[in-house]
Structures are given as C-alpha cells and as structure tokens.
Amino acid sequence: MTKPTATTNLSINQVKITSDFWKRYRDLVANVVVPYQYETISDKNDTTIGDDAFTDKEAYQDGLQSHAIENLKIAAGISKGKHVGMNFQDTDVYKWLEAAAYTLQYHPDKDLQAETDAVVDLIAKAQQPDGYLSTIFQIKFPERKFKRLQQSHELYSMGHYIEAGVAYFEATGNQKALDIAEKMAACLEDNFGLEDNKIHGYGGHPEIELALMRLYEVTGKEEYLNLTNYFIRQRGQDPDFFDKQNEADGWDNAFWPDLNTIGNEYYYADKPVTEQTDAHGHAVRCVYLATGLAHLACVTGDQDLKDAAQRIWNDIVKKQMYITGNVGQTSTGEAFTFDYDLPTDTDYGETCASVAMTFFARQMLAGDFKGEYGDVIEKEIYNGALSGMALDGTHYFYVNPLEVNPSESEKNPDKKHVLPRRQAWFGTACCPSNITRLIASMDRYLYEIKDNTIFAHQYIANSTTFSDGIQIDQDSNLPWDGTANFEITNPNNVHFNFAVRIPNWSRDSFKITVNDQVIDVDGKDGIVVVPITDEKTSIEVVLDMKTNLIYANAKVRANADDVAVQRGPIVYCAEQVDNPGNLWNYQLDTVPSFDFAYQEGLLNGVGVLTTNDATKVETEPDSESLYQFNQAPRRASTKLTLIPYYSWANRDEGQMSVWLHK
Amino acid sequence: MTKPTATTNLSINQVKITSDFWKRYRDLVANVVVPYQYETISDKNDTTIGDDAFTDKEAYQDGLQSHAIENLKIAAGISKGKHVGMNFQDTDVYKWLEAAAYTLQYHPDKDLQAETDAVVDLIAKAQQPDGYLSTIFQIKFPERKFKRLQQSHELYSMGHYIEAGVAYFEATGNQKALDIAEKMAACLEDNFGLEDNKIHGYGGHPEIELALMRLYEVTGKEEYLNLTNYFIRQRGQDPDFFDKQNEADGWDNAFWPDLNTIGNEYYYADKPVTEQTDAHGHAVRCVYLATGLAHLACVTGDQDLKDAAQRIWNDIVKKQMYITGNVGQTSTGEAFTFDYDLPTDTDYGETCASVAMTFFARQMLAGDFKGEYGDVIEKEIYNGALSGMALDGTHYFYVNPLEVNPSESEKNPDKKHVLPRRQAWFGTACCPSNITRLIASMDRYLYEIKDNTIFAHQYIANSTTFSDGIQIDQDSNLPWDGTANFEITNPNNVHFNFAVRIPNWSRDSFKITVNDQVIDVDGKDGIVVVPITDEKTSIEVVLDMKTNLIYANAKVRANADDVAVQRGPIVYCAEQVDNPGNLWNYQLDTVPSFDFAYQEGLLNGVGVLTTNDATKVETEPDSESLYQFNQAPRRASTKLTLIPYYSWANRDEGQMSVWLHK
C-alpha cells in the first residue's frame, strides 16, 4: 500500500461564515433544528414517524415514536424494554450528535454541550467492552452479531458513530467521544480482515469506509487507513459472501426478505470496486462507498482507486444526475437505474443521496483541484440537498422529486413515494439529521488546501484565518448577486497560490480583478489561480447572473422538448401557488426574457424570476371530451413565476415542476 | 324487480364475416391459436409460464407449465397429483373452450369438436354433485369452499365455465355443457342469497354476473336473472363482508396477503353499486361487473341500475381511457387511478380490461342505440384489445403500454411490467384466451337489434341472414378504406329500420347514399336510421379517412404538448425499427401532411402513414454533457413513419410511442 503524500504547511485555523443566506440556515439549525431533533429522538415531543418508502411497520409495532435514545439506554442497562425501530436507529442519535458538535463550533451553548456530553456518556455505557455497538443486535439478536452483514447495518451504524465521535472530539476536545470511536475501530479490526480467524466480509451498507478515513484524519493512525483499504478492496472479491452468510443465518431469518435476493449489484458488491465501471444499486450505498474510496485514493495516491472513484463520479455526474443534483432515479430500492434515464415524476432523489454527493465531491476535490467538483457541491447545497429541509427546520423531504402533482401522489400508487409536503419525521429517519449535519458543517466546504494553494471554491461569504497569519475575507451575496470580493491579508508575505472556482454557469463570462487590474484568464477546468505574495490583496470576481435556459442531453427521454431555468447556482421551479391552473399547460416561448427580483418577505427572502414570454392553454369550459380531433388547444399569453427549487412546498400545497414545456 | 321488456320478432340467423382483415385473424384463431392454447393448457408443448406482474411463483413451485387440464383431471379423480397454478387456473380451460366453441361455428372441425367434447366430459367429471367446481379448492382446500370469497375466485371460475358452457351449447348443441353450467348456477343459488341460511356475499372478482346473464339469455330462466340481480345489488351492502370472512378464515391464511387489506374499493365493494359514482379499483373487476350490470339493467329496465352503469361508462370513457381504448393506469393492483391521470410510460392497459370494455360497450349498446358504444367496440377491436395478440397468434401482451423504451423496461424497475415483447404464456394466463374468444366471437359484435331496428354498428364486411328472410351484405375494406356498401334483401317487404353508426372520427364529414340518392342526415348521437320497406335496398356509406391529429384534454398531464395520430379507427404509433434513433427526439410539425399507403407485404398487410413534416434532434457527437446552457438542440427535417398500434412489436425490438411531440 502506497504511503500518504506529505502535507504542506498551509492549514486552516477557523472559518467563520458571514453569508446572510447561510447564517440564517445555520442559526436555524442551532436554535431550532438540533433542539427539535433531540426532542424527537428522545421521544420528548409529539412527533411520530410518518409513512416513508422504507419503513418496516413491524419495527414500530411497540410505538410510533423514535425510541432511538431509549434503545441506547436499554443497551446500556439503564432502561428496560424492547428495541423499537430500524436496524440503524442508533444512527439517528449519532448524526444528531455530529450535527450538534458542528453547531457548538459556531454557536457555543453550554446547555447543549451538557446534553451532548451526557449522550456521549450514554453511548459509552451502551458500547460493549469489545467495542461493539448496535443496540438492536445487543437487545434482540445477541447471537447474530456480524452474521448477516448484508442487512444488519452494524458497520453502517458504527461508522456513523465514528463520524460523530470525531466531530465531537474536534469540537469540544471530549476524549471519551474519540475513545468510543477508536474502540469501535478496534472491534472491527479484531473481527474483519484477510486472516483466517476473521470475517472476510464488509457491510451491506457502506459508511464505515468514509468514517474510518475521518478517524485516520484526526488520529493519523495508519491502522485506520489500512482497515479502510481492507473494506474497500475486499468488497466484491467474493460475490457470494453475503449469500453464504444469509444461508448460514437462515434465509427465513431476513430483516428485509426482499433484499435477500436483490443481487449483489444493489450493494455495490458484485465485483471488486476497481473493476466497477458505473454507479448502480442503492444510491446512498454507492455514493457513501465512493466517498470513502475517493478519500482513501487521495491519501494513498493509489491510481487504481483514483480511477475507480473517477468512473463512479463520471457516470453519476455526466449521465445519472438530475439538474437539481438529486440522484437515484427509482423508489424501488432507492436506486440508480441507468445512464440518461431521468424520469421526473417517479424519481427518488433521496436527500441523503444528495448530501452524500457533497461528501463525494469534497473528497474528489481534495484529490484534484477542478471546478466540476466544487460545481457539484454548490449544486447540492443550493438545490437537491437543501430542498430536504423546510424553511421552518422541522419538516423534511426524504424524496425530492422534480415534478409533483399532489393528486397523483395521493391517487396513483406508482407515485405514492412522491410526497407534496415535507414530513415531521420518518420511520427511516436518515435524511433529517443528514441535511442538518451538512448545513452545520458548511464551513468545512469552503476551502481546500493542497501543496501551496488555497482553493476558495464556494461563493459563501466568510472570514477565515489560516496558518502564517493569513486571513481571507470573502464578501459576497450569492446566490442572489454575482460579485464576490476577497480581501487577502498575508502579514508574513508568504508565497502561496489563491484559487477561485469559476462555476460552470459562468464559465463563458466572468471578470476577475486583482488589485484593480483585470486579469486575463480562461477559467478552463473551472479554476483560476492567483499567486499571492503581498501583504494585502484585493480580488473581485464578477460572475454572470443572467438567467439560463437548460436543455437536457438528447439521450434523456424525460426532458425532450422541455427546459429548466437556472440563475447563478439556483435551479428554479414553478409552483401552482404562483401559477394558477395545471402547470403542464404552461409553455415557455423559445427565447423568454426573465425579470429577477429579490423578495425579502417571501420564503425567508428569495430571488424570484418572472416572465411574460409564456403561454397557457385556455381551457374551454364546454370542452369536456377526453380527446379532440384536429383541434390544437388554444393558447394565450401568460405570466410565469418561478421560485428557487429548494424553497418549494413551503406555502400552499400544489403542483410543482422544475422542467417546463417550451 | 321489473319484468324483462318484450323482445321483437326481428332476429339474427347467421353472421358470416367476409372482411379480409378479420378473416385472417379468425382463420389464425381457428388454425393456430386454439390448437396452440390447447397444447399449452394440456402441457403438450414446451410453453412455460413467463414473468408477469401477478404471478405467484409459489403456485408454480411444482412446475412451470400450465397444468390447467391436469388440475381438472386430478379433481375428476382421473389423475393424481398436486394442484399447480393460480386459484383461477381452471378458467384457462374454460375460456379456451369458449373460444373453440365460437370457431366451430365458422370453421367446423370434427377433430377439434372431439377434443372439446372430451373436455366437457372431463369438466363434468370434475364437477361435484352439488354443482361446485374449483379444482384448487377441491384438491387443496376442500374445507375452505366459499369461505374467502374476496380472494378465492370460485365464482369467477364458475362464471367463466358458464360462459363457455353456454357458448358450447349454442355452437354444438352439447346438452351436457349447458347442464354443467346450470348445475353450477344451482350450486350458487343454494349457497348465496338473502335467506338466513345462505352466504350474504359475492365474489371478490366479478364475472359470475355477466355469465349468469348469458345463461339467462340462452335458457330464459328467470331464476338466473334473479341470481344476477342478487349478486349485483348485494355487492357492497355490507362493506365489511370480506373482512369478516377473512377474519374467520384466518388473516394469515390469505392467498395474496397484499390483497387482504387493500380496501374494498379495489373490489368495487365499498358501497352498493347504485351508490358508486366512478370507475375504480382493479380494472377488469370493475368492467366485468359493469358488463353484468348493464346487461341486467337492459333486460329489467331498472333505472337505478341503468344510471349506475352509465356513471361507470362515463367515467371510464370520458375521463380514464387511453386513446387506444386501454384502461387501467397502474400496475399496482392492475387498477384504475383517477380522472385524467393517463401516464403513458407506466400504464397497465391489461388486454383483459380492453376485452372487457368490448363486453361492456356491447351491453350498453343493447340498452341504448348510441354511436359512442359502437365507437368503443371499434376502438378496442382495432387497437387496445387487438394489440394483445401477436400477428403469429402465439404471443401475447398482458400489459399494453402507450410508450415503450426497452432499456427502461429492463433497467428501471418502475417499468418492469412494460414488456417490449409479447410472451408465449403467463403464470396468470387470463389475457391470451380472452383476446382469442373475442376474435372468435367477432360475429356477435356486428349487429344489435331492438324493437324494429337492425343496427349495423361495425364496418366489418359480412353477409348476414335475419328472420323473415332478410339478408344484409356489407362490402367494405375498413380499416383501410372508408366506403361501405350495404345490400339489403327483404323478400317479404318487412317494414323495419336499418341503422348504421357514424364513427366519431367521421362525424363531421360523411356521405350516405340510399339507392343512389344522397340523404341529408346529421349523424347526431353517431347513428343514422334508414327505414326499409323495399325488397332491395342499396346503401353506401362513405366515411372520412383523412389522417387525424388527436389532442388530449388539457387536464391530462401526460399528453401536454403531444399529439396522437389516427386514421379511420386505427390509432398509429411510431416504432424505432422505422424511425432510427430515439423516438423522443422526433417532433411533428404543427400541421403535418401524411401519406397513406397500404403495404401488402408488411405486418400481414397494414396501412402505413408517412410524413416529411417532422424534425429530429441532430445529436452532436461531441456534445457529451448531460445539460446544456442556452443551447437548444439543433433540429433537422426528417421523415416519420407510423404503423397501426395493434401491429407493433412484431419486428425488431425497439422503442414505441403512440403520443408524439409536436
């Protein structure tokens, strides 16, 4: 195994986000979301689980509340009772803890920290002496530990704790939080590996890989790198591994019988990851694995792993990603389907999968400074991932469709997963805490440092201090305005490169001024590098905020003859509340002209696009026949109003569509 | 209960179909289809069941062949073994027998008749002394007879036998065939009714109602009318009837657990039929029930039943029917969804449901001479129903989609029911024999007589003799040509009315000449009546065979901005084999001009439509990005070729679409 490449001396001290847009979200997370989710997982509020696609009703026969904290108490011997909820119920606590840890860094809160410390203590008590922790197995199936990895989510759950433990240690210095994580890693080292006395397997739901890389990052211990390398390289070496375990555990003993025989492709375990050529199977499984893979490849420099990560990336981003950044085209197994298959009315686009794409993009970016990775982070945080949370912070989408007709969601069972409203909670509650931890950790997505270069790849206003006294202040009002000013203070006259991303929506037209001098750069690869030596450098980046019409590749059936509208990073949609009648009766003219207006009082402040270059079918009241011969529907000019996709479903329930007829 | 209205003296003696189009199909049925299906249900060929949406794999664990005849032999005590197949496996034999009976009327065949006689003998042996017959219950669950009517299909199965027995008696005079049917009806009378000692229930899958009406028709026995009346009026009176039976039989004892709790709407048993306002639930269940209802209403004249039938009709035809005549919008439960919800890529459109629509339309027509009922018969027999059978007669569609992309069928599980090829057989093999019996009985769909009027409602060339020596010869070459000549011979100078239907696609433009005199009629209600008194009358009807563009109602989301193409009764589609590339990249111009050419050598002879008034996206080979900014795809003029929908999927596998972008 290749040694990690040496790191440079440039490093980040502290990132402070000053962006109005993101401060609102991050304050909401600290003040509302984290408290709400803690009450929910502690069964202290009235929130009950809603209907979602993957809820096993049997798991909740003893109650419709989360029970996630309670399960840990039972495992810790503090409470008595049955395990309630899914195999991975513990992760609702861990992801909440991780999100809380991030908020403590920008929003110190002693009361919260007392709660989180107590939760860490509880987790420590629930953990077995050997490091194992999965409450459902400890409470209900102690004899089946590590014996049905395809479905057990044990490694997935421990992976989520490791992420949380690392984050909490980083935020608060709580050593116990890190110790639990290291004990878990030790448990996995004891049980998994190529040695004869170990299990030659891996988890059905990847997550441990990216988590162990975080543990490696914070501890620097090479054993965690090696363990990640094992889990990634061993996956799919024996395509029958899961079947053999299932057979030994008893086929009838499945947690989800449907998943017994769904095929190893679903678990991305049909062949070794280095032989895989595309993204397939369960979307979140695939992208979590790809995140760990990219991170490992970046650290080790192994070309075969880099290539494998690149193949997954290319297939998703160039062939299977919705314009909003959502991924996973089918509700059947929450899965990818195939290249250019992007149906808009039955799609899944799980919030977790979009969040996972930001993780994956960040690791790809760390490995290779290219604009496209930052573009995807930007796409997710302003669109596909962000739509997972309501403006109130306490309602969430699991599924993020591109087109919704509430009547179809209600009355056509093929669209029952396409909910027109965000829900208070889910039986499988992976999404709420996932979008929460992403927003709470947004400061980690602004800069990437490699060798001698600081890459400021997101246009989110911030004030950040680096090593050597370097400070960068970004003043910008994206996503609504296109001008960003960077004030770089470099008191020690360090020689380094400062790089900015030219977003794909502005690559044909942008202007960069360095100390009042316009510089001539082409922005190829979406990145512009400016050498810095002076004590003070002012850089202005002016991006092109015109309204863009987006056309899908001609291989995409679903969007033939349709257009989407994007301004800056924001993908727009039409909502029925702004556009009366059925949305499918609107048509954009060939070259529509849009007016943009920021509306302070609407949807917590959004930029609204309106156009009069549209028509709408005039429904004739006497035309009741289902089909008309040779009579094209009459159209009349109309106004069309578009709002940011992320902000839909925060007003009256109605139809929504990202793609518009033209 | 109202007495039946008196019948007039006008009656049909014999209908001989002379239409080239239909003779080919009917000869195929006699020479190929009926022998093939007999071998299949007798397990004498290699045909095995294929995958279909509703196949219970467990039912076939003892073999992948039909076993339908063998089940009867086991029930009859002639063979030993287990029941194999679905609850309703017996009906594959009965519907085959019914189809064979019809063929014997136009294609006498002593060998076939020996076989069918033997099958009747076998069925008689399998029938219990009390008249009961359902092989799965006799063999596997003798103690559960009539105890789980929601799922048992016992009445459905016996209904299908009754239809077959009546048809076979009518065709051959075989009394035993009728006796079996009457014994079954007696068994039902003994077990069902409002009396205290009887079951106050009905079958989960309607069919017995329309079958008992057939038995009433041929026997004239009022008890069968009364029994039909009971089954129809009792349905839904106690919405908990099925639940109570299921509870008593044991919930865990379900044949299809999913159907236990699906809701009584699914069975059209949520309230009394006279209180129902729309078509809902399982499409075939609903339309079979509606057929029996319409027939009963026609005979009794009961206005509440007529109204109930009319409401179902209106909801289907005006709000839930595909342009091809297919019905049932979702594969989930093979069901209706809701008004104006007509998705083209996930639709179900079961062949049986289209066949059922011809039954329903025929009964509505018998009750009320209106063109719209004949229009639907015509729509089904040339489109939605006919597409269920391949041109070779031995491959069948269960699902008849309006749009197919084979890659999606293969790789997107949401479309796995949308098969791009017809199958040799199915686990649930209801469709093959259903389309077969419809074609074999097509002669029953040409005329309807009421009071003093003979209504020749289909343009299918035939030579038919009536009472009083009346003979009508229709010479026409529909669906390809629009001129039909009727030669009416009336040797006894009987005074009667002759009526023809003006199809909805020709209602604005047609010409009728009676003995060389053009008559001035408006064709309102789609019917033109000509009084006949002379010994010889020649009537020429010239219909408008222009190519029509069809636009869907603006309430239909799926067809917004699309058009369909119809010429005469034939709905056209584009197939990829004629139109290279992806079909969704074609666009019809606003006012396209089509050339029509009958191609003798293509698809057993079809009328083909071509136009040069279309464009297609020119895919740029270097344009590999998934989304393009502000660059509308370039289009170039192209030729577009359309073939009749019924004939698709008889050449190379590829994409198909009925609706075209415009």
From TrEMBL, chains A, B:
Residues 549-660 form the Non-reducing end beta-L-arabinofuranosidase-like GH127 C-terminal domain. Residues 14-443 form the Non-reducing end beta-L-arabinofuranosidase-like GH127 catalytic domain. GO terms for biological process: carbohydrate metabolic process. Pfam families: Beta-AFase-like_GH127_cat, Glyco_hydro127C, Glyco_hydro127M. Residues 453-545 form the Non-reducing end beta-L-arabinofuranosidase-like GH127 middle domain. This is Glycoside hydrolase family 127 protein.
